[in-house]
TrEMBL record:
Pfam families: PG_binding_4, VanW. Residues 558-587 are annotated as: Disordered. PANTHER family: EXPORTED PROTEIN, EXPORTED PROTEIN-RELATED. This is VanW family protein. Residues 564-579 have a biased composition (Pro residues). The lineage of its organism: Bacteria, Bacillati, Actinomycetota, Actinomycetes, Propionibacteriales. It comes from Kribbella deserti. Residues 78-178, 245-311 form the YoaR-like putative peptidoglycan binding domain. It comes from the Bacteria.
Length: 587
């Protein structure tokens, strides 16, 4: 055998050995995970791909839904993984750990000798994650707090500045994804720190140079030849010094807080503007012109005070001129409302009772002069107010549960009924009205209104397109004469209104009630019934439309303040003499 042949045999033998070794290595390593591999602290080394997936799934199952603790600066918040659209891709994670068959000798060597901690593969729903980070940012983000100086009494108090924080949303998304599933330690989220413009030295300087001198004495404010003094204790609650982005500490006065003080002190210096209004002159509405006022200009007085506050005694003076104050409702606006004629009017009468004079008269005075611009709503409860003694009312009869009882404001419904009918015949939009529960014969049947504070109201809307003005004319009752209330609604007449009514129907009979309780008041009975009311709208003699509503009256019981009569006992039939037996008893 020659040398070449021997060398070939040796080489072939060597290759055979290598092939056998390679095959043995491939068979040994199979699809196993490298020996030292861990994922989330779970050892997967030496396991097959299927075994590794099963072990990892079981080991982290309870962690997958555990809320993540997130921390940025000093703030800590929690986030549910499902809300952020986070899930663990077990298949991809095990694959990344090195599982799976390979003919690569290097990979075989790694299975037998290598392995390391492998990061899990986490998949995030971007839409959900972005939305979750937005919610987290609202909890974490905080602007820098500028330092400030306020006052306790006349003593300046420093409030130190503080840095702000703004969440880095892109970095937070990465940190949250890397930190899932939760491993026990809060996940640090990246955030930017914003510093306040003015620092502690700036606040300390403002305290010495402005805040302390500001409280050193009163300020004299001169208007013409008159003056007022404003004391430090009066100005302090509205005064504040605040740092800004430029590093300056700027003083400010809250004008709204000072307005009550200004009104009181400037009372003799100012004349307030008066809005245009209406009054009846010679039986016709007339515009009362608006009057502009003169006021200490607030836009000038506040800067002047701020400029004067740090000055020393002897220089704490400021001179201010008067500015014009325009009326909110001008003469021209009033004239344009077209209030010139009676649109609707009605009169009701009432018998003498002093409480009626008080209550009906008080309500009438409050209603008188009501002005409604186009589209505005009339509310009797809002205009008249709660029926209390302080508001000018006394006790009178009201209907409660079908009985007449005493209560504050009794009789005000006469004002409501009269006003309702004036609005009815003015053609205005009926928004809310409620008839009495029982019929009172001094009111127009079916066409009346009651009120009760605050639940039952009379409301109508000015839908005429022009303004309306309500006039009331009240005449007191006397023991020998009825009182009267007339309500006129002035404006621009739109409709000719007439009223109609059905026959009364669905009658209900009253009962009889006997009452022996103290304070019982006898009451006459009233029959209950229903009636339908019509309102006809016409223009130039031609009917254009019809509205209707139904009024239901309950029966009012007859109330007698006495015991209920007992039914008579049946007559007693005399029995037979003692020595006789009743007929038919013998058997």
């Amino acid at each position: 055998m020659g040398r070449k042949q021997l060398a070939g045999i040796i080489a072939a033998a060597g290759l055979g050995v290598l092939a056998v070794g390679y095959g043995a290595a491939y068979a040994f390593t199979g699809d196993k995970v490298p020996g030292e591999t861990t994922v989330l602290g779970v050892s997967l080394g030496g396991l097959s791909e299927a075994e590794a997936k099963a072990k990892l799934t079981g080991a982290v199952k309870d962690k997958l839904d555990t809320p993540l603790k997130l921390k940025a600066g000093e703030k800590t918040v929690t986030l549910k993984p499902a809300d952020a659209g986070l899930r663990l891709d077990v298949d991809a994670t095990v694959e990344a750990a090195g599982a799976g068959r390979s003919l690569n000798p290097g990979r075989m060597w790694q299975v037998m000798t290598g392995g390391e901690a492998v990061e899990p593969v986490v998949i995030a729903d971007k839409t959900k994650l972005d939305a979750a980070i937005g919610r987290v940012a609202k909890l974490i983000d905080q602007p820098a707090t500028e330092g400030s100086i306020t006052f306790e009494g006349v003593t300046p108090v420093q409030h130190q500045p503080a840095a702000g924080i703004t969440l880095d949303k892109a970095g937070a998304a990465e940190a949250i994804t890397k930190g899932y599933p939760f491993a026990g330690e809060p996940i640090a989220l990246p955030a930017d720190v914003t510093e306040p413009g003015a620092g502690n030295p700036d606040i300390a300087k403002a305290l010495k140079e402005y805040a302390e001198p500001a409280m050193s004495g009163p300020i004299r404010l001169t208007v013409g030849e008159k003056f007022v003094e404003l004391k430090p204790a009066e100005l302090a609650p509205a005064l504040k010094l605040t740092g800004n982005a430029d590093g300056k500490v700027v003083p400010s006065l809250d004008a709204a807080k000072l307005e009550p003080l200004f009104k009181e002190r400037f009372e003799n210096l100012e004349t307030e503007a008066t809005d245009a209004s209406f009054k009846i002159v010679g039986g016709k509405p007339q515009v009362v012109p608006a009057v502009d006022g003169q006021i200490v200009a607030r836009d000038k007085v506040v800067p002047a005070i701020l400029a004067t506050l740090p000055k020393p005694a002897g220089e704490r003076k400021v001179s201010i001129g008067l500015g014009k104050s325009k009326a909110k409702f001008t003469t021209e606006q009033a004239q344009a409302l077209g209030i010139k004629e009676v649109m609707g009017a009605y009169t009701t009468y009432f018998p003498y009772a002093e409480y009626r004079n008080v209550n009906i008269g008080t309500a009438a005075r409050k209603i008188n002069g009501t002005l409604l611009k186009p589209g505005e709503m009339f509310s009797l409860n809002k205009i008249v107010g709660e029926r209390t003694r302080e508001n000018g009312f006394t006790e009178g009869n009201i209907i409660n549960g079908g009985k007449f009882v005493l209560d504050l404001g009794g009789g005000v419904s006469q004002s409501a009924t009269t006003t309702f009918n004036a609005a009815f015949f003015a053609g205005l939009k009926d928004v809310e009205h409620k008839a009495h529960s029982v019929y009172i014969d001094r009111y127009p049947v079916g066409r009346e209104a009651t009120v009760a504070w605050p639940s039952v109201d009379l409301r109508f809307q000015n839908d005429s397109g022009k303004g309306i003005f309500v006039e009331t004319i009240f005449t007191k009752s006397t023991p020998g004469k009825k009182g009267a209330l007339t309500v006129k609604i002035w404006g621009t007449k739109v409709w000719d209104i007439t009223a109609g009514a059905s026959e009364r129907y669905n009658f209900r009979s009253p009962g009889t009630v006997y009452n022996t309780e103290p304070g019982c008041r006898p009451q006459a009975p009233t029959t209950g019934f229903d009636i339908k009311i019509y309102r006809y709208f016409a223009k130039n003699g031609t009917r254009v439309k019809t509205e209707s509503f139904t009024t239901n009256y309950n029966a009012a019981d007859l109330i007698k303040c006495e015991p209920k009569p007992q039914p008579p006992k049946p007559p007693t039939t005399p029995g037979p003499p003692n020595n006789e037996k009743p007929a038919g008893t013998d058997r």
